[in-house]
Amino acid sequence: xxxxxxxxxxxxxxxxxxxxxxxxxxxxxxxxxxxxxxxxxxxxxxxxxxxxxxxxxxxxxxxxxxxxxxxxxxxxxxxxxxxxxxxxxxxxxxxxxxxxxxxxxxxxxxxxxxxxxxxxxxxxxxxxxxxxxxxxxxxxxxxxxxxxxxxxxxxxxxxxxxxxxxxxxxxxxxxxxxxxxxxxxxxxxxxxxxxxxxxxxxxxxxxxxxxxxxxxxxxxxxxxxxxxxxxxxxxxxxxxxxxxxxxxxxxxxxxxxxxxxxxxxxxxxxxxxxxxxxxxxxxxxxxxxxxxxxxxxxxxxxxxxxxxxxxxxxxxxxxxxxxxxxxxxxxxxxxxx
Length: 337
What we know:
Layout: H1 3-29, H2 32-47, E1 53-62, E2 66-76, E3 79-91, H3 93-97, E4 102-109, E5 112-117, E6 145-162, E7 165-181, E8 189-201, E9 204-214, E10 218-228, E11 231-241, E12 249-255, H4 260-264, E13 277-285, E14 288-297, E15 300-311, E16 314-321, H5 328-336
Parallel strand pairs: 4-6, 5-6
Antiparallel strand pairs: 1-2, 2-3, 3-4, 3-5, 6-7, 7-8, 8-9, 9-10, 10-11, 11-12, 12-13, 13-14, 14-15, 15-16
């Protein structure tokens, strides 16, 4: 009879100890001081894998209420690649216990990215990491799923330098949410619930909005819209089969009117006021796809169709005009003149 009270006392003591340990662990996990120390270890570990240099002036907060790496500078041996005011990370603690991590927020504020290509065609970002001594080891994750509720880039700036030519893209804003099922496995599925991008380019400001699901067999595209100055430039919806077993591709959409300033970036002689419009349709199987495109360029109408075939590991393309090039011949003569 005396052993039963002793057992209850022992059990109560164990429960108290476990409660104290759990409370202490939770306090440590929410401690800014602990995560400032851990953040420095993370930065040092990343630095050890680089030929360039990574500096972070301040680390504060914790991953559950907001983990901030402030005043970030990343350089390659050739110079500065990235400068950002802050990187914010937020995690869901309970999702880690379920082995289905949810990254509540991954945000980069005021990033300034410089991409430069040298005369050998190598980009500066390719020279940041140290060369691997051997083939890369396969990467696997012990997660059934991985979710990013919000990936943000706010007030970004990109400078692109190629062959001495410099292009500047500014006011870059990105808002992205996606979900990975079976991450980094052959059967991986990517479900993009929200994708929004806006950027000011040398030829105007453009916006993109989309949703999609990508599996090894099929790309589903409920919507893809590209806009500029309040008008639609591209609107697509449908699905694309990536293997024969997935059935047929069915993709349809509208193009334009495309602004002259955009086309002139690729072909300077393009005349003013010739903003092309059109409707396109893609259907078929991966082995044989048909593309139909029809619309207007200035006062001329066009109607084209083509087949993309893949047989015996060879690709072929056949382009035909089903109903002619009404007005395009005369337009081409005027353009040549």
